[in-house]
Specification:
about 450 residues; about 0% strand; mainly alpha
Length: about 450
C-alpha cells in the first residue's frame, strides 16, 4: 500500500489546527444561516400565513437534517479514528458504506414527502391557507431530499480528512445559489413563473443538489486520503454499517428530539395564536446565525478529538477542548447581546406586524439569555461524539428538550396564561442541560482521556 503523509491533525499546533479545521466550516455555516434568514424574509413578503407555514414545516424538515447530520457524525467518527490508527482501508469502507446509507435514507423521505406532508399540517392547524402552503413546501423538500443528504455526506468526508476549505466551498455554493433563486422563483422574476412558497422549496432543493454534485467532484479530485467507488458503495459491510450507526443513531435520535420539541412547542404556542408560532419560527431562523457557526466549530473539533484519541495524544485533546470552549462562548455571548439590544431590528427583517413585533421583542430577549450556557453543552457534546459516547448526548438532549423544556413551557402556559412567560422554558432547560453535561463529561474524561 502506498505511504500516506502524516495527517495534519496529529502534527499541526492545536490552536492553529482548530482554526484551520473550524473556520471554513464556521464561515460556511454563517452563509447557511444567512440563507435560512433570507429564505424566510422572502417568504414573509408573501404574507404572515406563508411564514407560519414554513415555521410549522420546520420539525419535519429538520428531521431530514437529523438523519443526514447524525449519519454523518457516525461516518466522520469512524473515518477519522481509522485515519488516526493508519487503517486506510477501513476509512474507505466507512466513506463508501456511508454513501449507501444516505441513498436509502433519501428513498425513505420520498415516501414521507408524498404521503405524510398533508396529515402533518392538518394535525397542527385548521387554517386551510397554511395547510396548503405547508403541504406544498414539505412535499417538494422531502421528496427531493437526495441533494440535501448527499451534500451533507460529501461535506463530512471532506471535513474528516481536514479538507475543510473545500467543504466550505461546497456549502457556500449551495447557499448562494439558493439565495439567488429564492426571489426569482418565489416572485416570478426574469421570465420565471411566480411559484410562491413552492418557489422557495424548489430553490432550496436546487441549491442542495448542485452543492452535492460539487461535493462529489471535490472528494474525487482533492480528497487524496479517501477512495470512493461504485464497487465499494454497492458492496455493503454490515460490520462497518453497525459501527457507523453505533455513533450515528444516537446522534440522529438526539437531533430528532429537536424536531419533536419544535412540533410540541408549536402545539403549545398555536393555543395562544398562530402569530406565536410564527415568532417561534423566526427565533429559530435568527438563532441559527449564532448557533450554526458554533456547530461548525463542533464539526471541526470532532475529527481532531477522534484522531488524537487514536494517536493517544492527551495533551492535544485537552488543548483543543479549552480553546474551542472559549471560541464557542464568545460567539454565543455575542448572540445574547444582539437579542437583548436589537430585537426590533431583527424582527423588522421579517415584515413583522405590530402584534408580532410586540410578542417577538419579549420572546427574543428572554430566550437569548440561555445562549452562553449552551456553549458548554455543544463543546462537551463533541467529546461524547468523538469518543463513541453519543448516547450521553442523546440523554442530555432528551432531558433538555422533552423532559424539561416542553413540560416547563406547558406549565408556564397553564399557570400564567401568558405567552410572554412561556419563553422562560429555554433558560430553565439549558441550566439543567449544562449541569448534566458537566457530570457526564467528568465521567468520560476519567474513563477515556486520563488513561492515555
Amino acid at each position: 500500500m502506498p505511504q500516506v503523509q502524516e495527517n495534519k491533525m496529529g502534527v499541526m499546533p492545536v490552536k492553529k489546527l482548530i482554526i484551520s479545521m473550524s473556520l471554513p466550516m464556521m464561515v460556511s455555516m454563517l452563509v447557511q444561516a444567512l440563507y435560512n434568514i433570507v429564505d424566510s424574509i422572502f417568504v414573509s413578503q408573501i404574507n404572515e400565513q406563508a411564514l407560519t407555514a414554513v415555521s410549522l414545516a420546520f420539525p419535519l424538515q429538520s428531521m431530514m437534517i437529523a438523519v443526514g447530520s447524525g449519519t454523518g457524525v457516525g461516518i466522520n467518527a469512524l473515518l477519522s479514528r481509522s485515519l488516526g490508527e493508519k487503517r486506510f482501508d477501513r476509512a474507505d469502507e466507512a466513506a463508501n458504506n456511508g454513501l449507501l446509507l444516505m441513498a436509502f435514507s433519501a428513498l425513505a423521505f420520498v415516501f414521507v414527502g408524498l404521503f405524510a406532508s398533508g396529515p402533518f399540517f392538518r394535525a397542527q392547524t385548521h387554517n386551510e391557507t397554511i395547510i396548503g402552503y405547508g403541504t406544498t413546501y414539505l412535499t417538494i423538500v422531502c421528496s427531493l431530499s437526495f441533494g440535501l443528504l448527499f451534500q451533507m455526506t460529501f461535506e463530512r468526508l471532506l471535513q474528516s480528512t481536514g479538507q475543510t476549505v473545500y467543504s466550505m466551498i461546497s456549502q457556500i455554493t449551495g447557499a448562494v445559489i439558493n439565495i439567488i433563486l429564492d426571489p426569482i422563483m418565489i416572485f416570478g422574476l426574469i421570465g420565471f413563473p411566480k411559484l410562491g412558497v413552492a418557489g422557495a422549496a424548489y430553490a432550496t432543493v436546487m441549491g442542495q443538489s448542485i452543492a452535492a454534485v460539487l461535493g462529489l467532484f471535490l472528494n474525487q479530485k482533492k480528497n487524496r486520503e479517501l477512495h470512493l467507488s461504485l464497487r465499494g458503495i454497492f458492496h455493503p459491510r454490515m460490520a462497518v454499517i453497525k459501527r457507523i450507526y453505533f455513533v450515528g443513531v444516537p446522534s440522529i435520535l438526539m437531533m430528532s428530539i429537536g424536531s419533536v420539541m419544535s412540533y410540541l412547542m408549536n402545539q403549545i404556542l398555536v393555543g395562544f395564536s398562530e402569530t406565536a408560532a410564527a415568532v417561534f419560527g423566526v427565533y429559530f431562523k435568527l438563532q441559527s446565525f449564532f448557533f450554526l457557526p458554533v456547530f461548525g466549530l463542533n464539526n471541526g473539533l470532532i475529527p481532531v478529538l477522534a484522531f488524537n484519541l487514536g494517536a493517544r495524544r492527551k495533551d492535544r485533546i485537552d488543548e483543543a477542548l479549552k480553546f474551542s470552549f472559549v471560541l464557542a462562548l464568545g460567539v454565543l455571548c455575542a448572540g445574547t447581546l444582539c437579542f437583548e439590544f436589537f430585537p426590533r431590528q431583527l424582527l423588522g427583517l421579517f415584515n413583522a406586524s405590530e402584534n408580532m413585533m410586540e410578542m417577538g421583542v419579549v420572546a427574543l430577549r428572554k430566550i437569548g439569555l440561555h445562549f452562553p450556557l449552551a456553549a458548554a453543552g455543544i463543546i462537551l457534546g463533541s467529546v461524547f461524539q468523538a469518543f463513541s459516547r453519543s448516547y450521553y448526548s442523546l440523554i442530555i438532549s432528551l432531558c433538555r428538550q422533552l423532559v424539561v423544556l416542553i413540560p416547563a413551557a406547558w406549565i408556564l402556559s397553564r399557570i400564567t396564561g401568558d405567552v410572554n412567560q412561556v419563553w422562560w422554558c429555554f433558560l430553565i432547560a439549558e441550566l439543567f442541560s449544562a449541569l448534566i453535561s458537566v457530570l457526564f463529561f467528568r465521567r468520560v474524561y476519567r474513563q477515556v482521556v486520563v488513561p492515555l
